[in-house]
Design brief:
mainly beta; seven-stranded mixed beta sheet; globular
């Protein structure tokens, strides 16, 4: 069983920055991929970006150029650097890990609130 714990959310003004962290209980270098999702009030949870086992990243167009996913394998932690934040980025942000080659299991963190408001 893998546990994921997000941190770093909060209130920020438009144009500001935040860095979210996702600390895993297992060795993230063995994970197929990790990703960040978000869910705004009244909306479905959406994928905003992933980082693969090889370190490749992909982003949704809505955050491309503003958000960056990285990881520190030694600390078993993934990060989401968010710059140029907009009010529409307000949401609960969730960390996800996909583990397994044949049977792929998804693990989720509890979420952290990000509010962009002046």
């Amino acid at each position: 069983q893998v546990q994921l714990v997000e941190s770093g959310g909060g209130l920020v003004q438009p144009g500001g920055s935040l860095r979210l962290s996702c600390a895993a209980s297992g060795s993230i270098s063995s994970f197929n991929s990790m990703g960040w999702y978000r869910q705004a009030p009244g909306k479905v949870r959406e994928l905003i970006g992933i980082i693969t086992r090889d370190g490749n990243t992909n982003y949704d167009d809505s955050v491309k150029g503003r958000f960056t996913i990285s990881r520190d394998n030694a600390k078993n932690t993934m990060y989401l650097q968010m710059n140029s934040l907009k009010p529409e980025d307000t949401a609960v942000y969730y960390c996800n890990a996909v583990i397994g080659d044949f049977l792929k299991l998804h693990y989720w963190g509890q979420g952290t609130q990000v509010t962009v408001n002046s």
